[in-house]
Amino acid sequence: MSVAAVAACLSLAACGGSSSASEEKTQSGPSTFVAKGTVTVVGSGVTGDNIKCHGYRGYDDMQEGAQVKVAVDGKTVGIGSLKSGTSSDGGYSCKFGFEVRDVPSGNKFYSVTVTHRGSIDYKEDELKSGVSLQLGS
What we know:
The chain has 137 residues and is α+β, with helices and mostly antiparallel strands. The chain has one domain (30-136). The chain has three helices and ten strands, in the order ααβββββββββαβ. It has helices spanning 3-16, 21-28, 124-129; strands at 32-42, 46-48, 52-55, 67-72, 75-82, 85-86, 93-104, 110-114, 119-122, 131-136. Mean pLDDT is 83; it is low at 1-26.
């Protein structure tokens, strides 16, 4: 192989062999996290057995599959749903877990809404650790 051919190969490898930091960030996308937590319905708004449960009497919307929305500045950035409700206290309370995946990182506050029940604001580290919401008395 001639010196010119070797130089041409090295030149092509150097030009196309690496990408800039901005290209790498674009390829991997923005940083995201999983927002997680629980919603507990207590008191007379609970029905079910000692293991599985759901809301009723004004809390009928609290059931497996109910929508959990995460928003930033009024714009929805993630949607998840309630997991199956469980009770460990004879049916006095019903606890639902939730996870909302791929929530974009780096915002000051995130609003969490479960069904139509209004929003509560949380910081990113709170949502990563897991938040606890409660309905009823």
